[in-house]
## 1
Amino acid sequence: MSSPQVDQSAALPGTALLQGLTDVIRFLHARGWTPATSSNFSCRVSEDAPGFAVSVSGLDKGELTATDFMAVDYAGHVLLPEQAHLRPSAETLLHSVVYRLYPQARVVLHCHSVNGTVLSKLYEATNGLWLENFEILKGFEGVKTHETRLWLPVFPNAQEMDILARQVEAELRNHHPVYGFMLAGHGLYTWGESLAQAKRHVETFEFLFEAILKLRLYGYPDYTG
Ligand SMILES: [Zn+2]
């Protein structure tokens, strides 16, 4: 078993995974899904590490580098003394929920797209929406057919992250598989076992958000709300 010192250094910025994560974030930013310093991102650098690396709050996500991450434990506490002056994202506890519920998850991506924000408001009253009969559903890991029915939970937005984290955890335990969740009027959380898988899940969700919004605009029966 690794010593805590080794574990902590593994969570320091500068690893290949963090470098790759910043590339993914720039892609998401270029698509317009991380506007105005919003959004946050994390990765579990190693299975032996005591927590995960999460983006520092308040930075322009188009300019994020591997040094703009900090190591935190699953309670959101800063792990490294030299990073004690940094402030983790306020939503770090929601990343913790994902890592605790899904041991395979290595990367959590949280975006604030316009389509996701609008859709989350439309489905806030029903606490979520079913995603089914779209070929793009095969973008989710393990999905083999468009004849798949997946629940996307939508939670009321809140600033009390500890309460919200408990709500999210309780709901996610009831649904399997779940590939993401939304906060109403706020944004999407999704994750993956790798950078590529997590990025693919964001793209899949964003495709679905735009498609469903257009179907609603055209009055398609399944999405008339
Ligand atoms: Zn957010």
## 2
Amino acid sequence: MSTVIETPDLPPTSGKAERWTNQWLELKAEVIDAKLCTGCAGCVISCPHDVIGYNHEAGGYTPFHLEEELGPDDCVHGQKGCTSCTRACPRFRQWEHQANEHLFDRDREPDEVAGIYQDILLTRASDDMVHQMGQDGGLVSAILLWAMEHDYVDAALTSYLENGDNSTWKAIPGVAATREEVLAGAGSRYTYSANTLAIDEALERGFKRLALVGMSCQSSIAPTMWSRKIGKISKPIVFNIGLLCSKTFDDAIFEELFWAKYGLAKSEMVKMNIKGVFQIWMRNGDYHEINLKECHAWTREGCNHCPDFAAEHADISTGGIGKDNDWTLTIVRTDLGREIIQRMIADGSIIARPGDSDPGAIALMRKLAEKSRSRWPETAESSVRVGLPEPKRKGA
Ligand SMILES: Cc1cc2nc3c(=O)[nH]c(=O)nc-3n(C[C@H](O)[C@H](O)[C@H](O)COP(=O)(O)OP(=O)(O)OC[C@H]3O[C@@H](n4cnc5c(N)ncnc54)[C@H](O)[C@@H]3O)c2cc1C
Ligand code: SF4
Ligand code: SF4
């Protein structure tokens, strides 16, 4: 057994493709121990031997190896040739380049720090209830409803609140296949939910074509899997809706900051949002703003080096930045994303206006995308930092 990590970064563009031999051994060393792991659970769902577990607890959101035989750092099945986990991981080696080539037939240009896209719009659901229940314009929920109704997908991997209410504010993965289920999951929780983990439930319920709703880190899973030809597990995810994201918080923030310092009980919170400050609305009608600098200490560890603010590999990426609170900033990236958005505009399911009508929103997206990319370590895959200004050196 060799522990030397010396395998090709990329399949060559011409000639005989070199064999992809990377397994858990390399994943653990290069992604998890290197602190690049986001907790997206791509490796967990990809493992055909079910030997990768997932820690859902506060301070966790990390994968780990379940078998004791070779210890936590190596895998018996990997030694025998299984490579699924590294094929699935959207932080392993040249994930960004490979997913870009697969989705767009080209890599991003240096000035495309927010990823490759076709259109930017501001959108909102036409259905008042969907609009009202959505975090911003209710676009994500409107798309899910429309895509199910128009036979693009059978169900969505999405997120809910534990117990179906505000008692714990713990975000958990789940499946949405009806209007009730889609609306029950609407809105944003700012703690982590590895929505990919709902795939087992979806397949058990007999759904074959799935939409994945997820933060940027999760949006890169399927394109990375497709580009590395992982096979069966990547097939059910046919549509990818991304949520713009600069960080999630550890669940401990509720007790250790909101309750301990401000006396805000999570069971009394009805909505939260982040617009320059952490906004919290309480059941009794009170509204609180908490400085984001104060929240910083509870940033979930998996987010610290994440370079992708704009969900660059989603079909459609969605965010809440902009001068109007009740519109969703909508970045249309792929042909499939454009087809769905255009059909929804045409049949009146959503209202759209050009993104240019709020140039500040696009400028802010770019700024935040640069900020996230600058967190990617200089020692890791260098192409991810392409487009960033040269870092200022001491004495320069
Ligand atoms: C953790 C997090 C951080 C975000 N950070 C930013 C940001 O910095 N800037 C920005 O512009 N936008 C950010 N967003 C996106 C924004 O909050 C909205 O989700 C987006 O604008 C879509 O709004 P909507 O009204 O169209 O979606 P809705 O119709 O409300 O649908 C939202 C969908 O997101 C899912 N969801 C909610 N919470 C989670 C979660 N924790 N994990 C996984 N899925 C979830 C829901 O289940 C639902 O399907 C963030 C979202 C999340 C969840
Ligand atoms: S980034 Fe995702 S796929 Fe990669 S090791 Fe972490 S949880 Fe697994
Ligand atoms: S910042 Fe957002 S997209 Fe990045 S790892 Fe954290 S949750 Fe995922």
